[in-house]
From TrEMBL, chains A, B:
One Pfam match: WHD_NrtR
Name this polypeptide is given: NUDIX hydrolase
Phylogenetic classification of the source organism: Bacteria, Pseudomonadati, Bacteroidota, Flavobacteriia, Flavobacteriales
Keywords: Hydrolase
The organism of origin for this protein: Flavobacterium flavipigmentatum
Keyword Hydrolase attributed: yes
InterPro entries: NUDIX_hydrolase-like_dom_sf, WH-like_DNA-bd_sf, WH_DNA-bd_sf, WHD_NrtR
CDD domains in the cross-refs: NUDIX_NadM_like
Amino acid sequence: MLQGVIENNANYQPGLSIDCVIFGFHHNQLKVLLLKTPFESKWSLPGGFVPIDEDIDTAAVTVLNVRTGMEGIFLRQFATFGKVKRNDKHFNDTVLDYLKIPQQEVKWFTQRFITIGYYALVDFLKAVPQKGNHQEIIEWIDHKEMPELILDHKEILDKALETLRAELNLMPIGYNLLPEKFTIPELQKLYETILDRKLDRRNFLRKITNIGILNKLDEKKSNVAHKAPNLYTFDKEKYQEVLKNGLNQGW
Amino acid sequence: MLQGVIENNANYQPGLSIDCVIFGFHHNQLKVLLLKTPFESKWSLPGGFVPIDEDIDTAAVTVLNVRTGMEGIFLRQFATFGKVKRNDKHFNDTVLDYLKIPQQEVKWFTQRFITIGYYALVDFLKAVPQKGNHQEIIEWIDHKEMPELILDHKEILDKALETLRAELNLMPIGYNLLPEKFTIPELQKLYETILDRKLDRRNFLRKITNIGILNKLDEKKSNVAHKAPNLYTFDKEKYQEVLKNGLNQGW
């Protein structure tokens, strides 16, 4: 992808990039997909540029698709970051050298960039993280154990998490993060992990049931010694409806 | 402002603009500040460009300040709009002629623009709408009686209103939209106008009181025949605290 930009940056929107915060849920951890290039000690969010003939949302879908191998991912724009000096020291000689950017193209890469942040929720087990090249490292990292990030990527990640937390009050969640069949305790654990606090069991059950997006199955979770909990699935139609209209539980 | 951009567009971020949805509340109407130039039948949101040495948020503050004469306005970025063809037919010959854009600068103005949307809540009575030049019209228009808007400004306005409605569940509102002293029915009317539906009086009173941001005054509303309602103010410190931490009433 980068090669195309270097060879013909006139085909890309100047001074504009996309950064994606890709969340996955696994072993009761909220994980984030991060990249590292060999010439840097810091990690970065997966990102890309915007082809002049593509909508910004399409460019974001491409980044996700390229990095996870998945399509039809839940993806939401959450904020645009445009402090004056956010990237002014990023493309130093080491980076330019590693990226093999020819002298005449350096100006394009070192210009001021504004970046549009998207966050995605993906099924951890279905995603296949893809490197950009064999020297790169790509990994799921627990959001509580974040390494140092380049540029303002920490700020972008924090804002994505803040948005995700706020949106728990506005929309249902879980469809993209849990296996198809799940128990209420598993769903509650997802909420607790995102919110980073314990929730009352009965309150949670009442609220989540009231939304009307769960189908109780005639099955119990197996491999559980006794008092096996019921399994549920999301009612996809109702889930989409609530996603569209909002939870509207406030006023 | 535009003159500066025409004369030296190298000082501005290429292909990037700011558009502001400025809301005011008056006579139980939610109004939006709109502009019209003499050569067009459609109205537009106030907007501007981003100086290369200014943060995007600062550029948005400038637009607000220039258009309302106000400072310290509540202002929030809500979305960035970047469909490929959003402005490709906007700068036609009539517009270029009216704006007196020299031939050699036309390319800069007709390039693809991505625009960052901000919404603001202002005190209708304190704002002094400012024209860009004497031919321009600037007016507060009821959001229920919107005229046709240029480009994707209708989409931007709709998204701003959708965001404002959603954020009623996440943060307090009213500080920038109501007079300093107000009654609970007046505050309820503000919520009803934004949400475009009736709310239950007792429920509203309970919920708004629970947030803990209101100070009841030792005063009643004057000019009311009998059963004069109590006057309230916002407890600014608690209001700011809740604004920062969120209502957190969901889970």
